[in-house]
Amino acid sequence: MALRARALYDFRSENPGEISLREHEVLSLCSEQDIEGWLEGVNSRGDRGLFPASYVQVIRAPEPGPAGDLGPGAPARYANVPPGGFEPLPAPPPDAFQPLLQPQQAPPNTFQQPGFPYGGGALQPAAQQLYGGYQASQGSDDDWDDEWDDSSTVADEPGALGSGAYPDLDGSSSAGGAAGRYRLSTRSDLSLGSRGGSAPPQHHPSGAKSSATVSRNLNRFSTFVKSGGEAFVLGEASGFVKDGDKLCVVLGPYGPEWQENPYPFQCTIDDPTKQTKFKGMKSYISYKLVPTHTQVPVHRRYKHFDWLYARLAEKFPVISVPHLPEKQATGRFEEDFISKRRKGLIWWMNHMASHPVLAQCDVFQHFLTCPSSTDEKAWKQGKRKAEKDEMVGANFFLTLSTPPAAALDLQEVESKIDGFKCFTKKMDDSALQLNHTANEFARKQVTGFKKEYQKVGQSFRGLSQAFELDQQAFSVGLNQAIAFTGDAYDAIGELFAEQPRQDLDPVMDLLALYQGHLANFPDIIHVQKGALTKVKESRRHVEEGKMEVQKADGIQDRCNTISFATLAEIHHFHQIRVRDFKSQMQHFLQQQIIFFQKVTQKLEEALHKYDSV
């Protein structure tokens, strides 16, 4: 009989590989054995995945009676069953199924992950997709073409990380002797086995102290695992790091922060122009980018921005890469949409150029400086180089350089991270509320306020027309003044309709950008929290005498590296937040003052018309 369980509480999935539960829902279990508090099963909607074991209660089936006791009411078809039941078949030899258990006999391209308890099943296709590398989103508003892609892909290149492979961990590399490159490795005896096969047992003179290992996360689809953070903390990262790839964290007056960019720059985005290709069959919008450090204009389409974002999001798991403006399937060539997208791209570029790490990234500099229209070969070479970047996943953390002889108090770090987590939740809620309020107020200004002021103006003009029936010469000035007042209210209504473009729209654009940042930080925090969990587990093993102190110290050192980077990114976020909101609030209030000055001017002009009556 299939194992079943009943959900005791609602559970909302937050990561790929998890499924949501509804209270009182009955689920089918793949196994009653939970690992690290998680079970695998299928919910009533047919979704298969992981969920917390504490959220469900296993439904126990009644115990069956003895095999030979069929009871007086047993059906006749069981009449030939021997009284004692069938004799058990003899057990097969121990090596009867040995060929089936050899790792090297696994079919090619089968997803295998040591420590993942559910070999096969419905989770394997999802795992293959998630571990197969980041695929750039290809929305309907910008298709890829031959100018951008050719038949060669990263997956076709031998040793490409984008295809899910890992760098050689044995130190062999054709580029190992290249100038400016040096090999870094975090591999230690803590490794839990090689990928794709079983590791030979390790014999240690210390005996029991080397028997314990820090366990892997059960959820292999969590951000901590996919980012490579787990592999790095467990000491499995190994690769060659170029001198220019090091990302330095320094200690500033407020704690860890990214080392400043020694060559700061800005980049303008202007002249959105509609272009065509294939004899007019394909249309797109091209933007002119002019970086201040080169002063050489380059032209980029939205799909180029989209490709760059995909590369950066894949490479930097502990850096908040700003989100691009949303895509739109229809109306892409309307003036309002083009203007709004350009403003969003300007905000995006401003945050990219302001980040000490992202601004100096090779792929970003290639995007800003390579003229794809005049040097297609150089553009494609840089594109392929970025897609074959080996410093991604666990190897990315090898590029982090932290202050020497600086140790972090993990309790203090955890407290700061928890405080920032609460801050981002509150800021996200308030940003949503402000965005809703500003959007509703702008809608009222464009439609309601304009209409109401025009009603007032029309009423004044109606009064003026009524007075004109008097035909008295001395009332002509009054009639004209009242009519002018009506016109003034019409003009004020138009001012209200045009004002949101000047003050509220820029505020909502900024809120949209920061909502993207706030959506990034849960994954960044998850990576850091995962590293802290491994440190706590290793300390517990040391206290129990099951792990050497040296191994636990290695885990803590690597956790410190991730913590330094996370705190540096949080510091940078707060810096640009203060800068951006200060500037935007100043702009908003200045525009409000100018607006009401215009309204006052219209009213004063109407008032002066009565002086000559």
From TrEMBL:
Subcellular location, in the record's words? Cytoplasmic vesicle membrane
> Compositional bias (Acidic residues) spans?
140-150
- Which cellular component appears as one GO term in the record? recycling endosome membrane
Q: Which domain of life is it from?
A: Eukaryota
- Amino-acid positions noted as binding a 1,2-diacyl-sn-glycero-3-phospho-(1D-myo-inositol-4,5-bisphosphate) in the UniProt annotation, renumbered to this chain: R301, K303, R341
Bias (Low complexity) occurs at: 97-108, 183-193
Q: What is its main location?
A: membrane
**Gene Ontology BP term (one):** endosomal transport
Q: How does it sit in the membrane?
A: Peripheral membrane protein
Establish whether keyword Kinase is in the entry.
Answer: no
Report the residue ranges that make up the SH3 domain in this protein. Answer: 1-61
Write out the entry's keywords from A to Z. Cell cycle, Cell division, Cytoplasmic vesicle, Endocytosis, Membrane, Mitosis, Protein transport, SH3 domain, Transport
- Matching InterPro entries: AH/BAR_dom_sf (IPR027267), PX_dom (IPR001683), PX_dom_sf (IPR036871), SH3-like_dom_sf (IPR036028), SH3_domain (IPR001452), SNX18_PX (IPR035703), SNX18_SH3 (IPR035557), Snx9_fam (IPR014536)
* PX domain span: 265-375
Which residue stretches belong to region Disordered?
88-213
Pfam families per record: BAR_3_WASP_bdg (PF10456), PX (PF00787), SH3_9 (PF14604)
Annotated GO molecular function terms are: phosphatidylinositol-4,5-bisphosphate binding
Family that this chain belongs to: Belongs to the sorting nexin family.
Q: What is this protein called?
A: Sorting nexin
The species is Nannospalax galili
